[in-house]
Amino acid sequence: MIDIHCHILPGIDDGASNLDEALEMARIAQSEGIKKIVNTSHFHPEFKYKMGEELLDEVNRFNVALKANNIDIEVLLGNEIYYTDEIIEELQELNFYTLNNSKYLLIEFSPMNTPKKLADVVYEVKLKGYTPVLAHVERYNDIIDNPNIVYDCIKEGAIIQVNASSILGRHGKEIKKVSDILLDNNMVHIVASDAHGSQRRRPQLKEAYDFVKSKYSKETAENLFKNNQSLIIENEDIIIPMASMYEEKRGLFSKLFKR
């Protein structure tokens, strides 16, 4: 498997705090069957995280440390861009990394203050030459209330990423429910760990892979955990099944009451 959303580099953002924790995260990932990780350090206008050449140097140093510790994982370069109106306007001038220098741009939003017309943001990012990968969409309040916002974003060309822990219900019933809705309606293209440490929010994918394989199919699991990730880091077009809009199922009583 390939994890394309992970905060594994030590001492960069709110991910691994030091080299020992980063190496332990890598060992956990290796035990899960993860072969490659795209480090997606936060790119946030209010925090001065390492970026550009400094971030590239950190990735190179960490890959050396992985080999020295006999950990068979390769870490690739990326950022997780925090959305603001200004960042989108200045996107082509900023010193960030796409996912392994591909056309795919990982972008996150405020859970409490997601843009009202999220599909318009997707359109704007596409105009600038990038394919937006919307990070952990199941966590955004507006999408919890209306999952079909994701459907509209897919129609505009977005790639949708959901966290493995959300699929397994580790962030509450609401987030689990919306994750299920998105999976049921082919509105998920990538599952990632969004790991931040070795004790909590760990780089684990296998249990979620097994869940998706059991509930849907092995082909679906392979696409969501491996094949689409491979295509992204190779800068190829990913496998996008036909999405369908979510229709809330109503009981007989509610249907009669509505009439």
UniProtKB/TrEMBL annotation:
EC category name: hydrolase
Keyword Transcription: no
Catalytic activity, reaction form: O-phospho-L-tyrosyl-[protein] + H2O = L-tyrosyl-[protein] + phosphate
Pfam families: CpsB_CapC
Entry annotated with the keyword Endoplasmic reticulum: no
EC number: 3.1.3.48
SUPFAM superfamilies assigned: PHP domain-like
The entry's keywords: Hydrolase, Protein phosphatase
InterPro entries in the record: Caps_polysacc_synth_CpsB/CapC, Pol/histidinol_Pase-like
Protein family (similarity comment): Belongs to the metallo-dependent hydrolases superfamily. CpsB/CapC family.
Protein's name according to its UniProt entry: protein-tyrosine-phosphatase
Origin species: Romboutsia faecis
Taxon lineage: Bacteria, Bacillati, Bacillota, Clostridia, Peptostreptococcales
